[in-house]
Amino acid sequence: MNTSELRNIAQRLMAGDKGLLAMDESTATCNKRFKDLDIPQTEEYRRKYRELIVTTPRLEECISGAILYDETIKQSTANEILFTDILIKKGIIPGIKVDGGAVPMPAFPGEKVTEGLDGLRNRLSAYYDMGARFAKWRAVIAIDNGIPTETCIKVNAGIMARYAALCQEAGLVPIVEPEVLMDGDHTLQSCAEVTQQVLHLVFNELYEQRVYLAGMILKPNMVLPGLNCPLQANADDIATATIECFLNCVPAAVPGIAFLSGGQPYALASERLNTMHTRFDDVLPWVLTFSFSRALQQPALEIWKGDDKNILAAQQALYHRAACNNAARRGAYSPDMETQQ
Ligand code: 13P
């Protein structure tokens, strides 16, 4: 393991006021988003959409790394420049989603386990040769009656630590993404307790499997009430619950925490990240930034709708969301920015 190289990549990903752009939707997820907007669900339309993203002017001002999908890392622009080459030229580090998705966990109704370890060592080395310098693996934890079980969390944590160790062996910085889902009517407090338990078990496994903490990035959920919880919370409560939870569980050796957006409305995701910075910047031992997919891309996708004549407007919308989150990362976001495009 080349620890100094891993540390260097992780630090570059977390540098400046930038964040990560998750554009690693699986074919099924990308097609689902396209279907909702009547966009043809073909490889060519997925390619066109990803070309729109990577060629967005000035994206590199706000984005340090882009997470790609297996199909996307091999794709090129219409004039045959690999997406990875475009990103590298802009100074954006290419990353790659390497998990195989979450499937039902046998004998544990309502719970899921993420697959994809088989053959991972060879896939990681192939992705390294294609230019990737970091990877991502997502586990999902649902809150409902009697779940999550400790067994489900432990199984996912063990698999995630094995993934992280294999990434570091291959020279890729692992992004470890244990997502506590927003679905359900659970309270903010319940999400805080589950997120804390998950992070403790994940960091325990990372330690057991000798993962180099200075060469990884954590991609967690914010601590939020469930979408159907009658008692919703304001940005202050969410920031306090989230930061207290992380200070309890995330070692200071970890260089950065980059949130997923998880289906939050995009402006709220920016506001909540911003509040964490305005309230807690002086006590944070790690960089705190974003690694959003929907909360960066959704307005752009809705403007594009598969039509070439909308590309420029869609790129402006993507840049605008990236700039809002870039401001949030330094505590300089204001909801007024939403009307200034
Ligand atoms: P969202 O920001 O849409 O939750 O996606 C983040 C991600 O990478 C999911 O794995």
Remind me, CATH topology?
TIM Barrel
Please, what is the CATH homologous superfamily? Aldolase class I
Structural class: alpha/beta
How big a fraction of the residues is strand?
A: 5-15%
Number of continuous helical runs: 12
Please give the radius of gyration in angstroms: 19 Å
The low-confidence parts are none
- Main beta sheet: strand number and arrangement? 8 strands, parallel, barrel
**CATH class identity:** Alpha Beta
Order the strands across the largest sheet as they lie in space: 1-2-3-6-7-8-9-10
Inertia-based shape: globular
Bound molecules: 1,3-dihydroxyacetonephosphate
N-to-C order of helices and strands: HEHHEHHEEEHEHEHEHEHEHH
Helix content: 40-55%
Q: How many β-strand runs? A: 10
Give structural notes:
With 341 residues, the chain is of the alpha/beta class. It has one domain: Aldolase class I (TIM Barrel, Alpha-Beta Barrel), CATH 3.20.20. 45% of the residues lie in helices and 14% in strands. It has 12 helices and 10 strands. It has helices at residues 3-13, 27-36, 43-54, 70-73, 83-90, 120-129, 150-169, 188-208, 235-249, 266-280, 294-304, 311-328; strands spanning 19-22, 63-68, 93-97, 102-104, 112-114, 134-141, 173-180, 217-218, 256-259, 287-292. The strands form 2 sheets. An 8-stranded parallel barrel has the order 1-2-3-6-7-8-9-10, surrounded by 7 helices. The chain has a two-stranded antiparallel sheet with strand order 4-5. α9 (235-249) crosses α10 (266-280) and α10 (266-280) packs parallel to α12. It binds 1,3-dihydroxyacetonephosphate. 1,3-dihydroxyacetonephosphate is lined by residues 22, 138, 177, 260-262, 292-295.
